[in-house]
Amino acid sequence: MVGVIRNFLEGISDLHLIYTHHPLLLRFFLLYPELMSRFGHRVLELWFSWEDSSYEELDDVPSAGHPTLPASLGDLFHILRSSPSILLILLDLIYSSPGDIAHKVLIVLRTFLRRHEDVQVGGLIRGHFLLILQHLLVEHGTSPSEVSGNLPLLLSLLSVVQLRNESEQELDSMAMKLLHQVSKLCGKCSPTDMDILQPSFNFLYWSLHQTTLGSQKRAAAVLLSSTALIELLEKMLALTWAEEGSPRTTLLCSAWLLTASFSAQQHDGSLQVHQTMSVELDQVLKSLSFPKKNAALLSAAILRFLRTALQQSFSSALVTLVPSGALPLQAPEDSVLAPMGTSQVLSLVIGLQNLLVQKDPLLSYACVGCLEALLDYLHARSPDMALHVASQPWNRFLLFTLLDAGENSFLRPEILRLVTLFMRFQSSSILTHEEVGLVLQGAALADLSTLSNTTLQALRGFLLQVQSMGLLADHNMAQTLQASLEGLSPKAFSAQPPLQDMLCLGGVAISLSHIRD
User: Are 417 and 399 in contact (CB under 8 A)?
Assistant: First the structure.
């Protein structure tokens, strides 16, 4: 019977001549493989073209706990659950359909993936997307502007698939091929191809951070081999301080985070460098002293980059920080701090203090991490300079400004790390022994079960620092400290559910641990 129907339908020039918009007709065509393989694409295209809703409201309600789906979508989702291979037809529709239909399909597919996380289709979608991307690069190899206008939609869907993987997973051969193809696509773009680059950068960043250490090294090696990608990143970083022609702030954030990630992976794994990058150190420091308005995320990304450079003692084989123009005459004591000078160090410290006062959580993590790396860098070269920076009177004002945020505000992880840092450099002028005792008393009274793993780890670092410095003359307080440390063993961290590490903030892929740790 199905064969007869197929033969009849093949004699019709276009299905729209007999199409009727009804869920039972859709189910009929998608239920039988013989019909789905021959007519599924056209029937689904007609289905979406007849749907009145644009589904825009679904993008604002990404989780399953939100309002009920329209009945028509409920029927479609039921069919998709029973036959996930239909998702491949939807991918083809996103690639080949007119813009309005493609956008509808994208929203529907995104909504399905978000609401049905138990349906394991990541490999299926990635494999099909790889075929589409390879075809595009062969057909339009020289100019991404000639590539299908729907490619950014497909790339954004790839990021949704990536976000579904909460746990670290090994990157298989297909994932590596996809990384190579996406990096190849990026390398053919200019900084103005923002619609393609933003989802592509997000995918590359998540691929680097949402996998095991072994896979990170292999992925970084693949990406570092793309000289065109490295050249593009160098151009984009320089556009951060350009007065005209600068890309969107979100894309600049991704470029800085990717560069920091590449530099760290290359340095830690001693990976081969095929193309080096140069970044103007003066401009980096200036961008932190005079940040753009409403650009906390960009400042956090640049801080992550600078922190990486400081941790490597500016010895990266991939990224060289160079002066902007002619070098001024340096004081003798500046030579040990090179490539930074004393004035640059102090300017950076003031910039970090000003950024911390904004009390933006993500930016605060980035600032404290950068300050930790800066003081370690200074201590290795000039302990006196490190002590001078840590003992700046403004640090005390900064600390108490941050503490003026309600009861138990000292239990915020960034503040605990800041206090620990000042104590490590014995800055008693910033926090007296009596004030350390007050923090300890507050910590002893806190309900540890309500604190996040990040806070518990910062609290343990603070308590260990207190213990190592022998600041406790009071025997009872010492016993309380020891009990607290035992309660803060690494086992206690693993007993708590981890917070989601991979986020998309304002369209930018972020790993909280990359910014924070």
Answer: no
